[in-house]
Amino acid sequence: MRERQQIGMSVIRQSLRPVPEVDWRALGKRYFNLSLYYRHTFGGETWKISVDGGFHCPNADGTISRFGCTFCNIASFSPSRRYDQPASVAEQIRRAIDNFKKRRSIDRFIAYFQPGTNTYAPLPVLKAMFSEAVTVPGVVGLAIGTRPDCLPPEVLDFLAELSQKIWLSVEIGLQSAHDATLRRINRGHTFEDFRQAVWACAARNLRVCAHIMFGLPGETPEMMLGTIAALADLPIHAVKIHNLYVARDTALAKIYAAGMYRPLEQHEYAELVVTALERLSPAIVIERLTAETSDEYLIAPDWCRDKSGTLRRIQQLLDERDTYQGKLWEQTAGNVAAASRDSETGRSV
Ligand code: SF4
């Protein structure tokens, strides 16, 4: 809250202003997708390369918890954790770039520090790691995935300094704006932690991408859309929406085996995504609309293997309804502004 008070109202207004950097509707799009944003920002096709800095997570190493989030099996979403010790940061990026270049003529890449909590290390380690990444030819930006409770001021100050030299995005996992859900999935942080982290980033002009999940245990469609509404009042620049899947060797796998969890069906997920898009600001870049993992790790749902089918279904629904991102945004933002005022006076959002 203190960070928020330090920010001038002009920064807040600018961050929440629903004016997209690209007039994507004029280009016939129904949402502001990532490749469009990349083309606009970097002048051509740009690809994200997953980098494994070997970071751990306070929610799994005993600092907050030893059990991790109930759905988390880090190896299930990161190839590097399935095999041997990863190569150095620069080597990982160079290898990935070489592989891409064999198939596509792309020469702009974002180094995405993905598995684990990528700000969970002493500052000198972070400085060395991120500085190494930006020296690799072809790297035009950094994306750093982390938790809202792992962004102390000295780390944010360093990221802000780095963002003066290279495009940088802080990707913060929220998953749900409902504290009851966050407790149920053992996230180890609250929605307020997320809000404070976002405002601390805004105070330093840092770009934020929020990660959320649909289909979390115990959540109704209204709750999932409530998470979208809660984002409308925050200065975020991008969103990733993931469908929750059940991965092997997780607490969720046990809950699923006991018949106590039902994943969303593909059509339910597509409906939710379309409604969510309608309620998001048209200025927010949609970085992802599906989650996927390897066959080796996936237990359910089966449709999770069909990423392009899910994206097609979402597009079909958008077309059928003749709707688009932000269609209902002002209404959502108004509701949230009121809810936010209530929360300032002691009622929870
Ligand atoms: S915070 Fe991220 S890395 Fe840590 S346990 Fe949860 S999902 Fe896994």
Automatic annotation (TrEMBL):
The lineage of its organism: Bacteria, Pseudomonadati, Planctomycetota, Planctomycetia, Pirellulales. Pfam families: Radical_SAM, Radical_SAM_C. PANTHER family: HISTONE ACETYLTRANSFERASE-RELATED, PROTEIN YHCC. This is Putative Fe-S oxidoreductase. PROSITE patterns: RADICAL_SAM. Its cofactor is [4Fe-4S] cluster. It comes from Thermogutta terrifontis. Residues 41-287 form the Radical SAM core domain. One of its GO terms (molecular function) is metal ion binding. Keywords: 4Fe-4S, Iron, Iron-sulfur, Metal-binding, S-adenosyl-L-methionine.
